[in-house]
Structures are given as C-alpha cells and as structure tokens.
Amino acid sequence: KLHSDLDKGVGTVKYTLSGDGAGTVFTIDETTGDIHAIRSLDREEKPFYTLRAQAVDVDTKKPLEPESEFIIKVQDINDNEPKFLDGPYVASVPEMSPVGAYVLQVKATDADDPTYGNSARVVYSILQGQPYFSIDPKTGVIRTALPNMDREVKEQYQVLIQAKDMGGQLGGLAGTTTVNITLTDVNDNPPRFPKSIFHLKVPESSHVGSPIGRIRAVDPDFGKNAEIEYNIVPGDGGNLFDITTDENTQEGVIKLKKPLDFETKKAYTFKVEASNLHLDHRFHSVGPFKDTATVKINVLDMDEPPVFSKPMYTMEVYEDTPVGTIIGAVTAQDLDAGSSSVRYFIDWKNDVDSSFTIDATEGTIATNELLDRESTSQYNFSIIASKVSNPLLASKVNVIINVLDVNEFPPEISVPYETTVCENAKPGQVIQTITATDKDLSPAGQRFSFKLSSEASNKPNFTVHDYGNNTAGIETRRNGYSRRQKELYFVPIVIEDSSYPVQSSTNTLTIRVCRCDPDGTIQSCNVEAIFLPVGLSTGALVAILLCIVILLVIVVLYVALRRQKKKDTLMTSKEDIRDNVIHYDDEGGGEEDTQAFDIGALRNPKVIEDNKTRRDIKPDTLRFPRHRPPAEDNTDIRDFISQRLKENDVDPSAPPYDSLATYAYEGNGSVAESLSSIDSLATEADQDYDYLSDWGPRFKILADMFGEESYDPDKVT
Fold first, then answer.
1. Which strand (E) or helix (H) includes residue 571?
2. 610-615 mean pLDDT
3. Residue 48: which H helix or E strand, with range?
4. Helix or strand (DSSP H, E) at 119
5. CB contact at 8 A, 44 and 111
6. b/e per residue, 14-52, with b = 16+ CB within 10 A?
C-alpha cells in the first residue's frame, strides 16, 4: 500500500505505478494506493521486481512528491522436485571387483531456493538394485556392495536411484533416474576342452597344407580374454601335422604338413594344448590357464594316381640327331595295394611338343624330327602317367630337354669396325682390337684364333696379333702411310674356332688412312682434306683459287701462241725438216719422261695437214714389279724395240723414216749407283729401301713407293 502525506482523503491525489510487471503482474488503486498481484508469481521464473510509484495532483497532473522506488521479492515455497538432468545413466565396472569399487556419481538439481528452508536440500537413495550396489545419500556416488560379482553369471544390472528434497523428510518432493551397469570381462576363466579325445578321419590323398579337422576349447570369457592359442605337444604327430587358431571361431584348425600314406602308416595319435594369450596376474591362484586333449587321426585308404620317380626330368640330345633316337625315359609307379599298370603320354599343348614321342608302356622318349639348336635350344613339356585300371587317376611331371650344339657355323667378326690409321703411324702400333662371335653354342674352353690370310701375308702393310683370349690386335707394319698414294686398305683376316669340326671364315677389315696431329688425334679422314690448307678462311681459299685460275689462263694462252708460232715456222720453211737440228740444252727426265720434247717437230708437215695421227703409245705409269729375273742381255728392251719397229713399218700414217729412241743406262759412276731396276741383279724381295727415308723430303715419294713393299715374313701372324 502506498500513501502520501498530502493525501487528505478527499480524492485530490492520484497514485501511478511503473517498472517491472506494472500493469501485467501488478496493479495499483489510483485512489487508495493499494498494490495487488493480478496473476500467480513463480520465484524460479523471476525472484524480484523493481517498481516506481508517484502521487500526482488530480487537477493539475503535477507530482506532489518525488517518485519513489521499491522492490517486491517473491518468497520461495517447495514447489519443484529434484531432477536428474543427465539421466538415464550408463556405467560399467569390472567383474570380480571388491566391495566399495567406484561405479558412477549421479547428481540431481532442485530449482527451489537453497538459501530458504530445506526446499533445495536433496538426499539420494536406491529404490532398485540392492544388494549389489549402494549410493552415498549426500554425494550420489554409486559403489559395488557385493564382492566377486561374476560376469559369466550375470552381466547387466539396472539400478533405480531416487533424489528427494526437504532433506528426505515427509512431504518432500522426489525425482528418480535409471542407471544401467554392465560388468566388464576379466580373464578369470581358463580354456577347457569339452572332451578329452577327438577322433578324426583323413583321406591319404589330402594335400599338404589343407585343413583336415577342427577342435575347440571353451572359454566363457569375452573378447581378448577368450583368445586361445593351440599347440601340438611334441610327440607322434609333431612332424606331420600343424595346428592354427581360427580368429573368428577360436577353433584349432589341424593342417597337414607332409603327405599321408595309408600303406606306410594307418593311424596317428598326438596331444593338443589350449592356453589363453592374455593372462591376468590377479587370478593366477585359480590354476593354470590351459588344458590338454588327445587327437587320434585314422588315415583312410584312397585309390591314388601313379607316382613318378623324380619331381622333374632333365635330358640332353645333340642337334641333327636321327629321328627315332631314344634320348631318355621317365618312370612312374602305382603304390596302392592292388598295383596297376601305367600308361604314358605327352601332354600336348603346342606344336613344339610334337618334336618328341614317348613309348606308352616303357616311358622312353625319342626324337620325332631333326632338331636345330639355333632355332630351339631347349624344350619344356609335360608327361602324364595314368593307371590302366582307372585312367582318371593321373599324375604329371615336367621334362626339360636341352639341345646340344654341333659345330656347324664359322666364327665371324662380332661388329663392323670402323678402323683408321694415322699417316704418321709407327711400326708395331695397335690401331684396332677385334673380337669374334659364333652362332654355335660355345662349350667351355672353346677359343678363336686370328691370322692374316695367305694372300695378305705376302704384302703385309698390317699384321694381326692374336692375344690368345678370343681377341686380336691389328698392328701397323710400316713407318707412315700416305693418303695421296692410298686412302683405303682392305685387310683379310682368317678366324677359326676350336670345336670339331673346325670352322673358319675370312673377314675383311677396312682401314682408312687419316691425318692426325703428333699426339695421334685424328684431324681429318676426308679425301678433299688432302689438298686443303689448314687454318685458312673461306675468303682466303676463294682468293687462292682465283689466282690459280688466272695463272692457268695465262699458261694456256702462252702455250697456244707458242704452238701457233711453231706451226707457221714449219709451214713456211722450204727446207727439209730433217735438216733442222733442234738443240735442247737441258737434261732428260729419265726413262719415264715422255714430255721432255715435242715429238710433233719430227713429223711430216703433210701428215699434220691431213690431220692423220700416228699410233704413238703413251706409256702407262710404271709400277715396279715384284719379282723379275736379272736383265743381263737386255732382252726386254730388244723385244720392245723390235715390236715398235714392226708396228711403224706397217703403219701408213708413220713418217718415211725411222724414229729411234735410245734407252741408255744412267747412274754410272754415281755414289748412289743406278736408281733403275732394269740392270738390277737382285730380286726386289732381297732389296732394302729403308735408306730412302733418310735422304730428305725430295725422296719421300720414292720412300713411300718402295717402303710399302718391305716386310718381314718371320713376324707375320
């Protein structure tokens, strides 16, 4: 209730209300100032309200007093029960836990005012779940109440928890929640076989590695605590059988390690041990966590296929062996009690298998066609042996036949070599190392030999040195080579193998002469490079060529004018041409000089006018013969002169006089003696021309010509 001292009770004062809840929750009587609540209040919704009130003059609407503020507090009553905001709960605790083991803590919330009375004081209790669990009434902690609770007996527990306010007194409000508790597993149970003896029957035809039976030990534990390891106790079956654990079913799978044979042994007995992999030391006192059972295996007799004496057969045969030759045999045997005959045949898969045949009864293998090692060096096929009594029972074996080589191909140079030799090469210098190949299959110890052919041995510019390790070296035999004289040399090399029969072949090695620097580095091997100066630019070469052309034009013009002048002299002369004596005050060029004088000056002018040519023979470039008997009587010159005389006598275009050429001897009285071979008393093979290299550059051509022919037959390989 509000009241102003200025209010005389005559209705001249009006009261107003503003603030939290004014007009909605609270209202005021404008005349008396009484404040009323117009709806129910909830402390949990709003614990207090702040309001402002004022007295106003009814006529003037002016405040009679300053505005005053006041607070209305809502007083709490116990109208809210405790609530478990996180419920229902799920918890777990290991089985076999001791009494008082912690499980879970629950908490209930009461919305009432904890500072006013006992409305918010909560007490916890168990309505369902005893005597297995207990709860602290103040903290809400749940603990185990019984020892050695076994998961294998009961795994799930549902506990009903109550929270009551007013300190648990009569009239208090209560709330409940559910706690689902699971006992987790511990390894407190060893594995146990349900029976002490397991009987298995296994066919003797079972394959190695295949499972032949299963046994199982029971472990009531769960998860990894129930994992079991099986082992065969050393004894009768330790070498023939093995056991592993199936991870899904925890069964022991017995597998075969070796083949079974009913005829050898009909039964096996051994023991199997089952044990836990993960042990809990707290339960060692319970006893050993393993168990043992006996396994008896009876081998069943089966009708088996024949068995070959070897797992694989390897045979050898020479190529070109006559068709029908037996090269080997395979053997298979029926090991069953009622032994049956065996038949053999080749497992045809391709045309290669038709190269051989097999005797169906004896198992002998023979050639069916001529074999060629160079086409196929090895044959690989299968032979099948089957029982006569039951052809469906068959076994297979692999046969490898190696074709041995017969020496039928000659060796050859392995690769085409590009061999070069320097012009400044020295005698004995190795310019190329060669190897050989043979299409035949070279057996151990076979080697190749290298040598020059018999034709090349007589003129060895190069020689072959056999190193004895299937390689050979090409060595020079001369002191230098000239590209102007000869650019390419063809060296025939004979290569032989060491097999029987011996095969050989002649291979030609091409050697190119190249220009090299003093260190032996090749600079040029082209023919054009012989005439090109080194180090000149293109402009300099063009200028030199132009100068040469101009000089050639001048020489041609000079020669043409001179010939014209001589022609005029001959045509105007009235005297006999034979009376004219032409004197040449120079020395002749020797035997090979045919250009020292103009033979036309001796011809008849009429013949020249008629443009009739005589058949003068222009001698070819003389090559020094290799072997010539001593010319003591000069019979060759006499025959030559006689032949020329006969030709001129019958030649109508020849002049009517004799033209006698005198072939005299030069070199008489010289210190160097005669340079001609006409009067030589010794054969060319007996002469040594190495001294020509010492006479200087003027005799280099002679040294190259005669030095090429020098050789030492004793050093030729």
1. helix 538-572
2. 46
3. strand 48-57
4. none
5. yes
6. bbbbebebbeebbebeeeebebeeeeeeebeeeeebebe
Q: Kindly state the percentage of the chain with pLDDT values over 90.
A: 27
If DSSP codes are grouped into helix, strand and coil, which group holds residue 620? coil
At 127, give phi and psi (nearest 5°): -90, -30
Environment class of 224 (CB within 10 Å of its CB; exposed 0-12, middle 13-18, buried 19+): exposed
Q: Which pLDDT value is given to residue 302?
A: 80
Distance CA 244, CA 235 (A): 17
CATH code, domain with 120: 2.60.40.60
Query: Which strands form 412-413's sheet, in the order they lie side by side?
Result: 412-413, 430-437, 471-476, 462-466
Q: Quick one: pLDDT band at residue 624, thresholds 50, 70, 90?
A: very low
Most confidently predicted of 35-39, 117-121, 302-306, 584-588: 35-39
Residue 313's alpha-carbon distances to 305, 343, 353, 387, 398, in angstroms, are 19, 17, 15, 20, 6
Q: Please give the pLDDT value at position 597.
A: 52
Query: Per the structure block, which two tokens stand in for 86?
Result: 């996180």
> Do 26 and 57 lie in a common domain?
yes
Residue 530: the pLDDT is: 45
Rounded CA-CA distance 300/265 in Å is 10
Counted domains in the chain: 5
Neighbours of 212 (CB within 10 A): 17
Q: Are 464 and 456 in contact (CB under 8 A)?
A: no
| Residue 349 and residue 398 share a domain | yes
Helix, strand, coil share of the chain (percent; to 5): 15, 30, 55
| CA gap 561, 190 in Å, rounded | 136
| 37 strand-pairing partners | 26
- For residue 80, give the amino acid letter: N
Position 54 pLDDT exceeds 60: yes
- In tens, the pLDDT along 414-440 reads 888 889 999 888 888 899 999 988 877
Q: pLDDT tens digits for 383-402?
A: 999 988 888 888 999 999 99
DSSP output for 360-429: TTT-EEEESS---TTT-SEEEEEEEEEESS-TT-EEEEEEEEEEEP---S--EESS---EEEETTPPTT-
**Residue 562, helix vs strand vs coil:** helix
Question: What pairs with residue 322 in β-bridges?
Answer: none
pLDDT digits (tens, 9 = 90+) for 279-293: 877 777 777 788 999
Range of the domain at 44: 14-73
H-run or E-run covering 470:
none
Look at 29-43, 361-375, 434-448, 498-512 and tell me which has the smallest mean pLDDT.
434-448
C-beta separation of 112 from 118 below 8 A: no
Residue 429 sits in the same domain as residue 504: yes
Pair of tokens at residue 165:
């306010």
Does residue 459 sit within a domain? Answer: yes
